[in-house]
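Hi U.,

Before I forget, here's the chain from the pilot set. I'm dumping it here mostly so it's searchable later in email.
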Amino acid sequence: MSRIALLDACVLYPADIRDFLVRVVMTDAYHARWTERIHDEWIRNLLMNRTDLTKEQLNRTRRLMNLHVRDCLVEDYEHFIESLVLPDPDDRHVLAAAIRAQADVIVTTNLKDFPTDVLSQHRIIALHPDKFVCQLMDSQSGLVCSAARLQRASLKNPVKSVVEFLSGLEQSGLPQTVLRLQAFADLL
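Structure:
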């Protein structure tokens, strides 16, 4: 059975990681879930930091993600929020959505905000996106490589060599993933 992963806003914020995780899920290597509130969060933060982007552009990305990733939107999770205790109360909606989605993993860069003792009560773990993708590569390297190849092929302005593409993923926070993908560079 494929993993069910709730993607936190912090992994949807950087375009390279967002695009890579979405392309990997489209290979059926795992099932991705998120909420409209998670979308709102990454879009709001990106608009604050990138004045060259518009809300319309990012809402288009939201629509495309929701359209192309099967059963991605988690709804009716709000009733779990009040009963949850996390270091940052603003993250309770993420755990609540993961519980509702029956996710086994929350993919996040904010690992400290999702303590193991709290998540284990719900049979959920938190993983950094780099570790999550490396685990997927352990059992499904062909699917992950296929997603990387498709992502690189989609980059046309400018076109990127394999080295440039992998360097971008590394700079985005996926160094171990890049090390593993380098072994398959001729397929990318």
